């Protein structure tokens, strides 16, 4: 498995497209219609971790929000 870490502000066009494709597969427009969380304003994550295996496309994505305390 290949693991890659990127700042959200430095994503390439291809990475953004892959994120959109993954989001639509996981959160299809049909299933989002009745999802209560769709109206919540989520904090924007600063980092993205892409996990890929030998198959084409994304196999997992994690978003990280760093809050120093």
Structure description:
It is a single chain. With 69 residues, the protein is an alpha+beta fold. The protein has helices at residues 13-26, 29-32; strands at 2-7, 47-52, 60-64. The chain starts with a strand and ends in a 5-residue tail after the last strand.
Short account of what is shown:
The chain has helices at 13-26, 29-32; strands spanning 2-7, 47-52, 60-64. The chain has 69 residues and is α+β, with helices and mostly antiparallel strands.
Features:
69 residues, alpha+beta, three-stranded antiparallel beta sheet
- Secondary structure tally: strands: 3
Major sheet description = 3 strands, antiparallel
Strand order of the largest sheet: 1-2-3
Number of discrete helical segments: 2
Q: What structural class do the secondary elements suggest? A: alpha+beta
Number of domains: 1
